[in-house]
Amino acid sequence: MPELTDKQIDGWWDVARAGRWKGAVGGAPAEIEITPQDLVEMAADYDPLIQEAPVTVEHTKQGPAHGWVQALRVAGDRLQARFQDLSQELRLWLESGAYRSRSIEMYKPFEPTGRAYLGAVSFLGAAPPAVKGLSPEPSLFTHGTACNPIRVEAQSMVLEEAPIEREAQMDEKTIAERVIHSLKEMFAGRPEEQKGRDAQSESAKKLEGQVAELKEALEREKAARTEAEERLAGLDKKLAEVKREAELAEFTSALEEAAAETRITPAELKGYLKLGSRLDEDGRRVILEEVAQRQPSAIFRELAAPPEKAPGTGSLARKRARFESFPEDSEHDAALGLMAANPELSFAEAIKQVRLEAGSGK
Prior knowledge:
2 domains, 11 helices
């Protein structure tokens, strides 16, 4: 046989045939039957992600694998395999023809599926294969039925000895009929499997309905939450307005009391009230603290005293009239503005800074 090329080595290898063979189960000699249905199940259920079948030599179960089974397919009465990640050592042996035979390890049944499953593929050199009639060369043709996988665990059946005589020799027509029947069952599905799929479909529909109901409930909750948040924002705004009005009323009352005690002039009262409406609570507090430190003025007491004569007569009445019509003091307003911006600044310091800025032309 001529040496194999890399392209041939990467092709499809015969690894098993339908028939009755002498092998071993759990290390004990046993008669093993591989049916066309077994071939179909191994090809259909094989999944490297569930249980990947290693490539070995002489059924060695120690040390590193020489590669891995990538895919399986059925071609007539044979199971064919394609490999991946073959070691360079095994490739050299295959090219030279040192290993021409193959043997498989098969789980029957494989617990997760209850069906046959490929456990491993082993290349044989001097040892004779149990399954006869496998091609020594891989196939490059694309014929056959490639299938997808599943997995688990059971006692492996090793086919490694000479075959026994079969009670009933199957011809190619019988094998083909069995394979076709198996394929029909696999793709059409058994009645119980169809019932199971129908039940799953019904369950999926119920779940979809529940998901839809939950989504609708979630949307209603979102709408209610949005409405509640808007109402809360409105109440917060109204509360802030009421609170500000109360603070301004308290501020006005304190200033009027200070004016009654002659701590500030009526003009200052007007200026403070006007400025306070533009300040926050901290700014108004600074004003009240500064006013509280002032001492009552004698002239303010004189002007604030009840008139001894009729209104409009005497020097005191004239003083009171001039005092009450005293214009707003822009210097005070500017000083109070500085104090609002800098709470640590005293009124005297603020007045001094305003006058310095006015004198420098700023």
